[in-house]
Amino acid sequence: MSVPTEATLELDDIQRGVLSPRPTPYAATYLVFRIEDRAQGRELMRRLSAVVTSAADPLSPLGDTWVSAAVTFWGLQALGVPRASLDTFAWEFRQGMAARARALGDVGGSSPETWETPLGTADTHVVITAVAPDPQRLEAAVDNARPAYDRLPGITAAWRQDCYALPTETEHFGYRDGVSHPAVEGSGIPGSNELEVPLKAGEFILGCPDEIGGVLTPQPTVLGRNGSYAVFRKLHQRVAEFRRYLRDNSTDPQDEELIAAKIMGRWRSGAPLALAPEHDAPALGADPHHRNAFLYERDDPAGFITPGGCHIRRANPRDSAVAGEVRLHRMIRRGAVYGPPLPDGVMADDGTDRGLMFAFIGAHLGRQFEFVQSEWMNDGVFFGADHVKDPVTGSHDGDAGYTIPRRPLRRRLASLPRFVVTRGGEYCFLPSLSALRWLGEPHD
User: Which positions fall inside the DyP dimeric alpha+beta barrel domain (predicted)?
Assistant: First the structure.
């Protein structure tokens, strides 16, 4: 839809956490705060403007270490942002994630009533995220940010989640994580798929033209420009149940790995079925320059190699003929593991909380995150499969199985339980550095 251009971004005003892919390996932490005093909340914003890392210099002395700050709708209210300004933000953001639960598939055991306190409530105001290549540099980043919020009366720490890379650099289901990242015009950061034309900056940066030529900017301009929206979700993974499902639906260990690949669209090494259809290719899976260089429509339109219903083809159909223009629904996605791994071979749940902190970055909450979640992940109509849900993250209730296209007969697996349960989350606004300073001033 877009033609490549020489886009110019004000990188020194954009938070680095908007555009930079997560380092590998990594350590990360999420900190949630509640603002109980408006003046102290503004002081917090002023201090954060001096701590948050900009996107101007990815090769800074800090290396792959940065601090980001996000504010919820409730946080903007607590800071005294005028109603006329609040009304210019995306309506999904103004409602909050809990109010959007049914559309997102957060029902039953994932419903907001079960979420960790205070996630999904009006007591979640500010989210500070720190990311680094290792725990030592992460702690240094947190220490650097601590003066921004420490000993501020009226600012209360409400929730924390520490994350890290497993020794295998996989997530808890065993798949290599963090293998895909879109290119954004003007960012200077290459995408992971050389076959994908860089996306217009306005798909991710507010105040810039997007794929259809539109420009979204919450008002006043100093507040909205160079910002973005962020979604964070804590997702508990039922690892033992996932392992049992693979075992019970396979004939031998080799077949089990094939089923795991057909469900995800990649072998657990990270090698895509599109490039390694018969056997795993660990060297390919570890190669960031080649493991994403593929499309679907020319070589596999019917999904005999990479099933249309598998996780990665749903999340990014690439050039597939699907309902919805794919480039309008691209997202920057990041996952960070939390909780200890379940030991290899264990098939019984040990009661430990483990999973992923999922983050989405984009300028269009509705047509990016919510569209993909509701229409592509929790429905199958877009690729002609009725209401079949994503096999890995879908909101299953045991009433539908998974079909693997195959000649001469397709392979039908047993009914899918819910492998991923939402523990909480929120929609956030990632202000520019100048907007953080603006939020530090009175605007009642």
Answer: 27-144
